[in-house]
Amino acid sequence: MKIAHLIIAHSQPAQLERLIDSLQHENAYFFIHIDRKVNSSNFNFLTTKDRVFMIANRERVRWGAYSIVQATLNGFMAIAQSGIKIDIVNLLSGSDYPLKSSEEIHYFFEKNPDKNFMEYRFIPEEWKEAETRFTEYHLTNYRFHGKTMVQSWMNKLLPARKMPDLLVPVGKSQWLSITMEAALFIIHYLDEHPEVVRFFKLTWAPDEIIFQTILYNSTFRSKLINNNLRYIDWTAGNASPKTLNYEDMDKLLASNALFARKFDLARNPEIFDLLDKRIHSHS
Questions:
Q1: How many domains does the chain have?
Q2: What is the CATH number of the domain that holds 100?
Q3: Distance (Å, whole) CA 148 – CA 172
Q4: Residue 236: what pLDDT?
């Protein structure tokens, strides 16, 4: 069971190195997308590690924009073109960290070889507050003078947008673990449906909807598991999840999740040591 950890990162090279080290396994491969807004040379030392590849086709990622979708797709394509027979693509951010040892993680996917793990809700009923993300026009992916005014007039004058290709909209968290077969299906589907790409380029935070929606509306639906295997704490009620620290350790250890987010090595280094102690005790 070969796993490609696709990591989207933009800062803290030392934390990214620690994440890679924590997931090292003879069948683990690492494909790293570094935001084009930052100097990637600060991360080049990571290529000295086994099975680490830097993605050459980098995106300038902006929050809520299609650019994060494109960065993920660039990663899918880099994995597909690597010549390595990958079984599972595991999408992580640079601020994630495992809660289980690499042996436990690989064992889990060996026992679930054809399943796709992602969080999704039926948007019109179960996540209704997200509906305006795609029924209204959002120019988040574009940069030009007067953008806010243009967006406002578009939403006043134009009819509500509808999902293309009769897609049923589902979504939630962008982080997922899917089969290589599913990743290839997503690539090919978007290649064959440029109208879907155009639609999601005008959608707010499409990364939380597009991949789930594509797989949910395909034959992969029967292989979807509504669980993204991540521990994420949203109790603070902010746009971003809580940065986990020592006080969260009991909840993390009690969780059945394979991974958690988010962490900050500069602010809370002690939790990494505690998690490593747990991980190594189960290796």
A1: 1
A2: 3.90.550
A3: 26
A4: 75
Q: Which range of residues forms the domain containing residue 74?
A: 3-281
CA nearest neighbour of 70 among 212, 195, 190, 192: 190
Q: Secondary structure of the chain in the HEC alphabet?
A: CCEEEEEEECCCHHHHHHHHHHCCCCCEEEEEEECCCCCHHHHHHHHHCCCEEECCCCCCCCCCCCHHHHHHHHHHHHHHCCCCCCCEEEEEECCEEECCCHHHHHHHHHHCCCCEEECCEEHHHHCHHHCHHHHCCCCCCCCCCCHHHHHHHHHHHCCCCCCHHHCCCEECCCCCEEEHHHHHHHHHHHHHCHHHHHHHCCCCCHHHCHHHHHHHCCHHHHHEEECCCEEECCCCCCCCCCCCCHHHHHHHHHCCCCEEECCCCCCCHHHHHHHHHHHHHCC
Looking up tokens 């134009």 gives 158
Q: Which residues of the chain have pLDDT under 50?
A: none
Q: Cα–Cα distance between 189 and 218 in angstroms, integer?
A: 10
Backbone φ and ψ for 9, nearest 5 degrees, come out as -135, 160
pLDDT at 283: 57
Q: Which two tokens stand for residue 109?
A: 């996917």
User: How high is the pLDDT of residue 282?
Assistant: 62
| Cβ-based burial of 113 (10 A; exposed 0-12, middle 13-18, buried ≥19) | exposed
